[in-house]
């Protein structure tokens, strides 16, 4: 394994890889800094580029750059005009905009950048170190263990999704059903194709993702019209001093641990990490009354936590093929289009490429620091660009990217169909992320569960008792889901009480 790691290091140290990562970082920051244009949308539009270049050591690091840049980029409008560019920046607004109103926008943006880079670097190194022992354990897993873990992941994703649990479960089931469309994996018989030959291989992941994430954003942008930036939102004020950054290092470290832990659990994601990091910073502060009034620790806590999620989400993705959130679902699509199938055998068959990608992910943080510092003033101006100028370009990218992926006209139909599903889901306040996870994991769960049944034969009881890991996962599912449901119900009751008091 050490030899594979060294080979991956040699493969990662390429000038063209660094150039594409830099391009991805800049495009990600651009997408994140535009209010209403999310990281998921930017990733979905740019996924086709990643496999058109043909080399996974260029295409996938490029998308990782978009991912990293987009998460930080969302903090720019959050700080300057009190409008989170992404869900990950929801907690950054609380103190970031207050600092802008005090004339300290530059200080807030630089604190966000430094906190993002430090936490992202630490969590990426953790991912690189952890991937080897985790992969060694997962290599011993068979169909029962994989099926059990996928089942638990699907339940956690549904329970922790945005909105009510019932809505999350409905969207999850809908995604699983879409995953069943096509040929049965065991008999080869067509299912739910309604006589359409194009559906025999099922729905293609790329047009589905672009339709669900990009088209609803475009529709929403058209409906809302142009949003003018606040006159307060300008890149002004003094630089962040070293002693101010040093004072926030403990907060950054705490939020890095929080974000790293959340990143390992499928379905939680950056928004939850950001809020937990912010709350933890406030609770640990000697002056919690300053939070919400322009506290640098508030920006540091939120930005460190949401960026620390980025690396650890790659652990379940690469070792088990389980995406942690919508963005890693897009990365999964990119891996598959490059001929790399994330799962227990990936490190064994393509270990050099995997390590090269992870090392490139670590190196990307140093590029991120330099590019971010230089380009913050530019992206601060991007906040005020009119949407009417961006929408035609976005539509062109959505349709051209979909068609170029396979040059299949039916993919355009798939794009429009899932675009309508995404628009309807957003209008009814349904989260589409569980649907995407259900679509991706449902097929794998069906296949591994079918293999499990074949292995068990007629003696299910003996088989269940001998498969200890799989049974352990199933037994643990109940308290984990119960605890998550308890947290959700507690929050619901608190909101209900506040509404009653109002």
Please characterize this protein's 3D structure:
It is a single chain. The protein is mainly alpha-helical and about 500 residues long. It has one domain (about 1-500). Helices cover about 75% and strands about 0% of the residues. It is built from 22 helices and 2 strands. The protein has helices at about 1-10, 15-35, 40-50, 55-75, 75-80, 90-100, 105-140, 145-160, 165-180, 205-225, 240-245, 250-265, 270-285, 295-310, 315-320, 325-335, 345-380, 385-405, 410-425, 435-455, 460-465, 470-500, and strands at about 180-185, 190. Strands 1-2 form a two-stranded antiparallel ribbon. A hairpin with a 6-residue loop joins strand 1 (about 180-185) and strand 2. Helix 3 (about 40-50) runs parallel beside helix 18 (about 385-405), helix 5 (about 75-80) packs antiparallel against helix 7 (about 105-140) and helix 6 (about 90-100) packs antiparallel against helix 7. The model is unreliable at about 230 (pLDDT under 50).
Oligomerization state: single chain
Distance between the termini: 60 Å
Structural class: mainly alpha
- Strand residues, percent: under 5%
Lateral strand order in the biggest sheet: 1-2
Main pleated sheet: 2 strands, antiparallel
Order of helices and strands: HHHHHHHHHEEHHHHHHHHHHHHH
């Amino acid at each position: 394994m050490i030899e594979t790691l060294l080979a991956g290091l040699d493969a990662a140290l390429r000038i063209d890889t660094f150039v594409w990562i830099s391009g991805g970082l800049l495009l990600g920051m651009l997408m994140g800094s535009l209010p209403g244009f999310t990281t998921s949308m930017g990733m979905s539009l740019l996924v086709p580029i990643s496999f058109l270049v043909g080399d996974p050591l260029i295409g996938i690091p490029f998308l990782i750059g978009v991912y990293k840049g987009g998460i930080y980029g969302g903090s720019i409008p959050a700080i300057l005009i009190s409008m989170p560019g992404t869900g990950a920046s929801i907690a950054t607004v609380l103190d970031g905009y207050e600092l802008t109103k005090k004339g300290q926008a530059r200080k807030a943006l630089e604190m966000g950048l430094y906190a993002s880079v430090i936490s992202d670097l630490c969590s990426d190194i953790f991912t690189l170190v952890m991937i080897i022992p985790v992969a060694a354990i997962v290599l011993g897993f068979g169909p029962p263990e994989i099926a059990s873990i996928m089942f638990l992941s699907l339940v956690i994703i549904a329970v922790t999704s945005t909105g009510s649990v019932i809505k999350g479960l409905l969207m999850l089931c809908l995604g699983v059903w879409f995953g069943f469309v096509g040929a049965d994996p065991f008999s080869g018989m067509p299912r739910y194709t309604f006589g359409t030959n194009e559906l025999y291989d099922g729905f293609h992941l790329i047009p589905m993702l672009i339709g669900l994430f990009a088209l609803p954003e475009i529709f929403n942008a058209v409906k809302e019209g142009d949003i003018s930036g606040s006159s307060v939102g300008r890149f002004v004020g003094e630089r962040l001093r070293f002693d101010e950054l040093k004072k926030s290092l403990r907060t950054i470290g705490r939020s890095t641990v929080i974000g790293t832990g959340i990143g390992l659990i499928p379905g939680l994601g950056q928004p939850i990490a950001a809020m937990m990091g912010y709350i933890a910073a406030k609770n640990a502060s000697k002056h919690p009354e300053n939070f919400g009034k322009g506290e640098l620790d508030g920006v540091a806590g939120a930005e460190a936590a949401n960026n620390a999620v980025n690396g650890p989400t790659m652990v379940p993705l690469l070792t088990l093929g389980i995406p942690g959130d919508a963005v890693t679902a897009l990365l999964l699509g990119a891996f598959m289009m490059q001929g790399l199938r994330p799962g227990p055998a990936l490190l064994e068959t393509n270990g050099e490429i995997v390590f090269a990608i992870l090392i490139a992910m670590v190196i990307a943080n140093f590029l991120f620091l330099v590019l971010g510092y230089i380009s913050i003033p530019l992206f601060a101006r991007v906040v005020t660009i009119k949407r009417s100028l961006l929408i035609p370009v976005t539509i062109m990218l959505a349709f051209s990217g979909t068609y170029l992926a396979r040059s299949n006209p039916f993919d355009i139909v798939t794009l429009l169909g899932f675009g309508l599903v995404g628009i309807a889901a957003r209008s009814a306040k349904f989260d589409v992320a569980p649907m995407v996870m259900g679509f991706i994991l449902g097929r794998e769960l069906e296949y591994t569960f079918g293999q499990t049944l074949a292995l068990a034969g007629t003696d299910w009881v003996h088989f269940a008792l001998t498969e200890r890991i799989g049974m352990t996962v199933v037994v643990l599912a109940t308290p984990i889901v119960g605890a998550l449901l308890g947290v959700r119900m507690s929050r619901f009751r608190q909101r209900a009480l506040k509404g009653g008091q109002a």
